[in-house]
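Collaboration report, partner site 2.

Our partner group contributed sequences for two proteins of shared interest, and the home lab folded both. The records are reproduced in the order in which they were received, starting with the first partner submission.
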Amino acid sequence: MDQALEALAWIEAVTGRPLLENGMSYKDQFEVMQVLKDGEALCELVNAIAPGIVKKINRSKLAFKQMENIELFLTACKQLGMKDVDVFQTQDLYEGKNMYIVINCIHILGSLAQKHDFQGPVIGVKLADMNKRNFGEEKLKAGQHVIGLQMGTNKGASQAGMTAYGMTRHM
């Protein structure tokens, strides 16, 4: 529930839209679902990160329009580079089937926002940039003759002081 409250506070900070009324705390995921269910706050959030990515936010209370808002949010997340496995299904939010993945998606969106140089409040971890390295054949061959530190060391290795199998140890 802490992550859900953190996500709601972040949405509120980015969009300026009040979600946590008078500092109230939500008791369960059903209450969090009710706040995000219409998809308006999510569309406003993604528009704050990438202006104009959602062209029209539906303000209707009709179920199919609210689900369309959620779908617009999910499409925008994919356009920003979110992987398909990190994106929830519309019914996960609208019907409250899997709020964990919804909150996880919001945190990942926060990470993507940082990668896209979003200057507002942040949530989630900062994603690393690719740091590709190219080694020549000579460097690769030289590396094959190095004993890695994971293997331990062979310096100073001897059997001095070891007792052969079956022999008694003198003390």
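Second partner submission, folded after the first:
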Amino acid sequence: MSSKAKILILFAVIIAGGFGLVLWKGKAGGHGGALTKVTKEEMEMLVKDLNPMQQQMLAQSPDQKKELAKNLQEFLAIASQARKDGYADKPEVKEELEYMHKAILALSYDKVKNKDKPMPPLSMITEAQVAEFWGEDPAKAAEKKDGAPKPGENPGQPQQLPEQPPKGAPPAEQPKEDKKETDASKAKPAKLVIASQAENEGFFASLMEKIGLGSASAEAKVRRREAEFKKFLDAQKKLEAEKGQRPEGQEMSPEQLKQMRDSFARFSIYAEEAESKMGELGEEFAKKVEFQTKIQQSQLLAQLYAREKLVPQLEVTEKDIAKYLADHPELVKEKKDKAEEVLKRAKAGDDFEALAKEFSEDPGSKDRGGLYPNVPLGQMAPEFEKAALALKPGEIAPELVKTKFGYHIIKLEKKGKTKGPDGKEVDSYDARHILISTTYKDPANPMQQEMPLDSYVEGLLKKEKQDKILADILKNNPIEVATDFTVEAPPMPQQPQLPPGAQLPPQAGDGDQPEAPKEEAKPQKGEAKKDKK
């Protein structure tokens, strides 16, 4: 594998899996943004999330460090261009970009809280905490095994808390207490009515919590969370449809919905907890979260932009390939000259079957003297079939026939009928051919296997187009990425040592090592040592 290919795989690991972020996102506006400069410290932060083998590879190769920085520069430039072209302003993309911060904040906080213990992400959050997040009774939530919304239940609407009266209804009668009511307790129902009227306005949510209206504040929180989850869910569905991951209009299964709902809650719980402890977590923690947020946001924008704008520009047509081959006859000259020589011998009367066995590079027919019997119409390459059917039985095509596999020398044996897959008779023919393959091995990549010349040229033309597109994007979106970052080679794992006494004794008589002398048994206390005889 080439260094380029290795580093591309390496970089894909960083942007797609460095923090384990795949799908679940959370909302936190004002974070992230365009990333136009990556410092030495940020690069070192980035590579710390790689596995030991990848770190070892970078530590040993300065060239691959430069290649990593170059690929990161290109990746961020594409994301920058996507922002200029308005991709970040699409409602579903904007929602997704906002949600990313919460997920990264939660996962980073989880790593701090677990202190890198080998535990699944967010596994310390209990089912009771998840139930409480959605305003459910933790005890009843444990009994609800499936966790999915019931038929007819809208996941985007909040659950009605039993202790709250419906809007517009008078507040429920409060149970009478034995002691005399105070003025403050008499005024409580009026406050509840005011809170109910303002519950959808975020300004009052925190105020109600402060003045002790816990139930009203809890309902407002649940409504806000349900609305956020519905917004998140709608954005996910639309993005998946745009990326071809889910047919538009196809609904998620109850299991998928439950998983998303559960994960949304877990990310939100830890993100809120982390936000409340940012002073304790420190500046370095905040910097890392912000940097990872920008990387993940850039990943999404680059992915969407590349799929919609760049991939179509890389298309290579058959005309493009034919023109390139015509402009570079040296690529096929040797093979074509060989094919012309074999054709000349076949037309001169040499045994076609013997020529096929000697020269053909088609493993499927070489041992049969190049014969393909009972070929139904439409089965072979169009160029091959057209040339074969233009012949009479026993004739050899006067010219070489070019397909993507190489040059063919074709002889028609007969035309007839054969049975198709449905048992009905269809037109068919028997033909022999000699294939002089035009497979090509890239001299710049000795480890790569030979491939059809057309495929090689197609890849070459795609790379030329890609390099030009990237050069234009980099020119219009200058990105600075440090290349002098340090990658510490991780310590190599040591082989486990056997406990004392568990080592295998040396085998006697193998001739490699002299047999170790046996230790003479020590006499027990009070026992005289016996003399050797």
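Feedback sent to the partner group on the second submission included the following. Strands lie at 37-38, 371-376, 401-403, 406-419, 425-437, 439-440, 451-452, 480-481. Residues 283-313 form the longest helix (31 residues).
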